[in-house]
Design brief:
The structure holds two protein chains of two kinds. Chain A is mainly alpha-helical. Chain A has 23 helices and two strands. The longest helix of chain B is centred in the first third of the chain and has 35 residues. Classes of the chains: A mainly alpha, B mainly alpha.
């Protein structure tokens, strides 16, 4: 809208996900690992265990190489990346929270300095000073999360900020504390997960067993507590938003299922190491590492998915369009664009008006400006695949576009543009997967109504007695419903025409009236 | 199309503090960042040069060995200190910087990849025990080259950001982000200006190591200071040529800012020229002394002042470039006083803790020797 759109063929969203998830997996380790270092150092002194201390020195090096290098650069990396992909959202976050970022920077500075001095201090400092540096490290690292967490949680649940634009109300938003505790617990678990990696490489079996047992003590309790905080976290997300992950949005639901599997497996395999701690192979620690990575990754994916269609909830959509009109919005609100048109309002549209020559180029630009923050043509959330599979006609596509906000629990913003622009976009999308007439004629005798419903209606209608579709069609019998299905596009402006075969229509018409009876 | 000038609208959210405060913080943190960057990059360049073209004597070998372990921490400091000015420049000039970054998105994104690779390269070199093997020299060279590219991409972006008139053509020609700003006439002199400055200021790394070693091994310390001083002098002499090239490559009205058009700009340029000459003079006399420490410190001090004025000039130049498109008076300010105060308080505490850490680290007697 306000900024040019970076055209990333494989998917801008995927690029953010890669940078963000790898960063998060390291930065949480940077926090939990800090406490792990000091507590393990104390343990080694207390038990007067020179070999544990020796390992810890090497583990510190590993820790610094992972967190100070990769962690710090990928953290800057997220910032670079969202600035490239969501410039308006980034700008909003920076304007609202510049002092938050600045405070975080102070802690970051202390954290990096302390980490390096702690590493180099192993052979130079007395025990007390060295431990003191370790504590400073951990506290600074933790405080930097205390700050960042506010801004991250704000994006999903901005709470009262929407009315007041007050820094603190946005910062201490409804999911702030559950999210902070959830992250804290996970950070401690990760300390153990990473320690297993260097720990299982030890040749000295006594030492190895000791490290494994000690590391797992960080994982197991954390994974017992995590579900409690997760439950609290979910409880603070508005129910309608959370429904996305409960079936209404296929991908978010997938991530929600995968987090259960990944975390359960992380927990189980960690328990498994306790059977023979001295014998734990390196490969097992790598497996646990990957499973924990899957857990963290799924969490971030869920958070990103259920926040859709917004980048800042109820304020700005992921495609940089404002939800509501307000002074200073530069005309980039849904209402204004629906009135004036996308191409005239978008600053970075090359085709300012649609002519018969530039129709395809204009359609492509509309897609780039409005859909590409979440979709691609052939990559991540690729649109061609869907079109090839569903074989929609141009009319069907166009109707779906005017009904985007009704699909999948409203994870898409409503289409912003004029009717002409919508038709142009539909015409362009039609060219991605040309439909040959004979393709549409698939007949099958044993067609199940449910399958037809899933394929044609479930994007927008829910299988529930209260859904308008069942309410309104439940009153009629087979022949009436069958007729109504041929006229869907005149029943509601926002509904695509039914494009299945006659046999499918009949199966559906037989199925609908008998549900919920 | 492609000839129009498109400027994104200013973010509708108010600035959470007055313009001048962000400006001061921006220039101040930029100075810190650039100096440390110069130490890291210039020091790295000098180390690589010495490794490949230095003599095979002990001292040149040692010089390499002494510099390279400092580079990773200097890179950490460079990145950390770079975050602050990047934050403040986004608050003030986001509509320009986001746009130019998107136009050259892939090179800008690659900065991160290059940084990670260079970083690990530096660490491998620094953790290597005797640092004699051939591959160590090459690894250092490649890592320094990556930093060179990072700097080059930065110069591209920060020149592109200043010239909105070139945006539309570039973006619509290739929206996938594979652009640079090579058509910009000031790009090469500007980048060279930073490169040569890195060598001049990077030489201080040698001098500072020399100063710390003076008590223990005067001979080697003197070698370091003299060698650093020479790098400094020659680089600064070259800088006069590069600086003039940069100045005359600027569009005329902008060049004239520094020749009477803008008072502060003109004075800054004069001070910088005089400072540059003075520091060369002091250094060249100093390194002939048996004890070059005092003059070397003086030369560094003068250069420090020059850097401050250079940073001011850089800001004046940006303001002049953007003046047709941006007025600070267009910004709405609504100060978040409570958060600002919290920041300042934490900032002071942060500095205190930082100083305490450094003090404890460097000035507690090494008790671990016996450990």
């Amino acid at each position: 809208m306000n900024y040019p759109v970076w055209d990333v063929a494989f998917g801008a969203g995927l690029l953010i996900a890669i940078v963000a998830i790898t960063h998060v997996f390291v930065s949480h380790f940077a926090i939990g690992g800090g406490l792990f270092l000091v507590l393990t150092e104390k343990k080694a002194y207390r038990e007067d265990d020179a070999s544990l201390l020796d390992w810890l020195k090497r583990h510190t090096k590993f820790f610094v190489l992972v967190t100070v290098v990769f962690g710090a650069i990928s953290g800057v990396g997220i910032w670079f990346t969202i600035g490239l992909i969501h410039p308006s959202g980034t700008s909003a976050l920076i304007h609202a929270y510049v002092w938050g970022w600045a405070i975080e920077w102070i802690f970051f500075f202390l954290e990096i300095t302390a980490a390096l001095l702690y590493l180099y201090g192993w052979n130079k400092l007395d025990r007390k000073t060295h431990l003191w540096l370790g504590w400073i490290y951990f506290i600074a690292a933790y405080l930097s999360m205390v700050v960042i967490n506010g801004i991250l949680a704000f994006m999903l649940t901005p709470g009262k900020w929407l009315e007041t634009q007050n820094f603190w109300q946005g910062f201490f938003n409804p999911t702030y504390f559950p999210s902070l505790l959830l992250r804290t617990t996970f950070a401690f678990a990760l300390a153990g997960v990473y320690a297993l990696i260097t720990g299982t490489l030890q040749k000295d079996l006594e030492l190895k067993g000791k490290i494994v047992k000690w590391s797992v003590k960080w994982i197991i309790p954390a994974f017992i507590i995590i579900p409690i905080f997760a439950w609290w976290y979910i409880g603070n997300i508005p129910d309608v938003v959370w429904e996305s992950a409960r079936g209404k949005m296929p991908t978010a639901t997938q991530y929600a299922n995968s987090i259960l599997i990944f975390s359960a497996l992380t927990f189980l395999f960690s328990l498994l190491t306790l059977i023979k701690p001295k014998k734990v192979p390196f490969a097992l620690s790598v497996l646990i590492f990957l499973l924990a990575f899957g857990t963290m990754g799924s969490f971030e994916f869920i958070r990103e998915a259920i926040r859709k269609p917004y980048i800042i909830y109820d304020y700005m959509y992921a495609n940089s369009i404002y939800k509501d009109q307000f002074p200073g919005d530069g005309g980039m609100s849904i209402q204004n664009i629906q009135q004036k048109g996308l191409l005239p309002v978008a600053k970075w549209a090359e085709s300012k008006e649609i002519t018969s020559e530039n129709q395809m180029a204009a359609g492509m630009e509309i897609f780039r400006i409005q859909c590409q923050s979440c979709h691609t043509i052939d990559g991540y959330r690729g649109i061609r695949k869907v079109l090839v599979e569903k074989k929609w006609s141009q009319t069907a596509i166009s109707r779906r576009i005017s009904s985007l906000e009704n699909m999948f629990n409203a994870v898409m913003p409503p289409f912003a543009g004029t009717d002409e622009e919508r038709e142009t976009l539909a015409a362009y999308l039609t060219t991605l997967a040309p439909v040959a007439p004979e393709d549409v004629e698939v007949t099958d005798i044993d067609i199940s109504g449910e399958v037809v419903f899933e394929a044609n209606c479930a994007d927008c209608h829910e299988y529930a007695a209260s859904d308008t579709m069942f309410v309104s069609m439940g009153k009629y019998d087979f022949s009436e419903v069958s007729y109504l299905i041929t006229r869907l596009d005149s029943l509601s402006e926002e509904m695509p025409p039914f494009e299945g075969s006659d046999a499918e229509r009949e199966a559906l018409a037989r199925w609908i009236p008998v549900q919920f009876k | 199309m492609g000839t129009e000038i498109i400027i994104p609208a200013i973010d509708p959210m108010p600035l959470p503090a007055p313009f001048w405060l962000f400006k001061v913080l921006l220039v101040l943190t930029f100075i810190l960042h650039i100096v440390v960057m110069n130490f890291m990059f210039g020091g790295g360049l000098i180390a690589v040069w010495t490794r490949f073209f230095g003599q095979k004597n002990d001292k040149d070998q040692r010089l390499f060995k002494d510099i390279v372990p400092k580079i990773p921490s200097l890179l950490a400091a460079t990145v950390t200190l770079g975050i602050a000015p990047l934050l403040f420049v986004q608050v003030l000039y986001g509509q320009f910087l986001y746009t130019s970054s998107i136009i050259m998105a892939w090179p800008w994104f690659l900065v991160l990849v290059l940084l990670v690779l260079a970083y690990y390269g530096f660490y491998i070199v620094s953790f290597n025990k005797d640092k004699k093997s051939r591959s160590i020299g090459w690894l250092m060279l490649i890592s320094v080259f990556f930093i060179f590219l990072v700097g080059f991409f930065y110069s591209n972006n920060f020149t592109l950001m200043n010239t909105p008139s070139s945006w539309a053509a570039k973006y619509f020609h290739d929206p996938s982000g594979w652009n640079l700003n090579l058509s910009e006439t000031t790009l090469i002199p500007r980048f060279l200006h930073f490169l040569v400055a890195s060598i001049a200021i990077g030489s201080f790394l040698l001098i500072i190591i020399g100063l710390f070693r003076w008590k223990r091994e005067q001979d080697y310390a003197r070698f370091l200071i003299v060698r650093g001083g020479k790098w400094f002098m020659y680089a600064t002499m070259v800088q006069f040529l590069v600086g003039i090239w940069f100045l005359i490559s600027l569009p005329r009205e902008l060049m004239l800012q520094f020749m009477g058009g803008n008072m502060l700009g003109t004075v800054s340029l004069l001070i910088s020229i005089l400072g540059g000459l003075a520091s060369i003079f002091v250094m060249s006399n100093g390194i002939r002394n048996e004890d070059p420490r005092k003059p070397a410190i003086w030369a560094m001090g003068i250069t420090g002042i020059v850097v401050v004025f250079m940073a001011i000039m850089r800001d004046i130049l940006r303001t002049a470039y953007l003046s047709p498109y941006f007025k600070s008076s267009d910004l709405v300010v609504k100060t978040q006083l409570d958060v600002l105060i919290l920041f300042l308080v934490l900032f002071v505490i942060g500095i205190a803790v930082w100083v305490l850490m450094i003090k404890k680290y460097f000035f507690t007697p090494s008790a671990r020797a016996a450990d």
